[in-house]
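With this grant's support, we have paired protein sequences with backbone structure tokens. One protein thus recorded is set out beneath this paragraph:

_____
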Amino acid sequence: MSKALNVKRFFQLLAGASAISLALAGQGFAHDLRAAIHQALSSNPSLKAADANYRATVYDLIAEEGGYQPEVSLFGNVANEYVDDPNGLSAADNGRAKVSGEIGLRATLPLYDGYRRANQVYAAAARVDQSALQLLDASETMALAVTEQYVNLARQGALLNEVRRHIRRLNQIRSQASDLVDGGRLPASDLVQIEATVFSAQATKADIERRLAETAVNYKAIVGSAPHGAITLPAIVAPSASQQGFVSSAVRNSYRVQSASSSVDIAGFQEGIGASAYQPQINLNAGVSAGSNLDGSSGEESRAFVGVDLNWTLYSGRKVGELSALSERKNQALYERMAVICDVERLAGSAWNAFQIASVRNGVLGSEVRSYTQLVRNYEDEFNSAARSVLDLLIAENRLFNARFEQINNQALLAFSGYNALATQSRLAKHFGVKKSDRLLRQKLTPKGNVEPRVVIKRGKVLFEK
């Protein structure tokens, strides 16, 4: 059953590849790489999830405003109450069970909390910035994934055209060899060798068609629509000439590095929140209530109160451990940021090297293709004048095919390396005209220095007022 399914899947892919290859052979391509990236960024579910997370963190920041407003609660109770208090109650009320009830409102407003609320606001703002940076980084990753599939489609299409050309040329050589065999001027074994080469080329063609179909499936999954039209390699984008300058720029612009910096900020604010638990907690309390038969006394009564309460933890066995753990969490964030910087430097350096090597190889392979092209022409002339055998011509044609095959692969690598270099600098989406404002409501809310927490909250509100 498994083999039958695999065979069925193979023919589905083969049919799909044939349809794709016909489409790629058409004239014009309305859905270019730029349009494909814009479509993916506006419709891909993973990016929509990152966008929802960003908006959720903004709402979390706005919710922190509640810490600066009174918390009002409704309370009430009903009970069958028995009170024995001969000194405080009349003889008629003392020692008698009565149904008592009370309902009221209570309001509490923190006056001092060791800057817990301020640090909560700052931490929430840092999370907004971090989620924004994560969304931008996800956009870069998505743009690079689209570019990779697009370049791969162009590469597979070019390889398919090349192998078709190669098969046509081999069939011409086979036809010439067949005439020579019929005329007794060439051994039959040479014709068999040529035919084996044709079969090998046809197998290569089938493999390319399979990979082309698989790439088209991957492209549709990312972009949201199937490729159509004639896809060619996008223009080459070269990184800066200086590797050191390129790597420095990558670290400076990297959304990953900036997101790691936000983690350091969050850890610092969490440290402040933890320390506030061991500071005096002063609250203003006020309320009103109405009830009957309260505290054993018959009749109705109402109450009103306003006051200040103090709660201060002078000793806790958890304090040292909790504060030390928060300090180490900040150290962890600092070291993780250093690790991210090292990783970005590594990726940027590798991307820069890959482009430079592919660029050098592109020139060498171009010269090799030109040499083998001339060699095939010379061998064909010499074959027609009986100075070369048909096998010499076959060998030259195979070498030309291999050189062109390698050249196409390297040209695709060169194109992708340039865009990969842009992605390591977090500049790929911008290169294709994707503005930050298209991905974000705003950015950078984390305060630097003494900023009134309610000012930070107000900035968060502005995000949804646009």
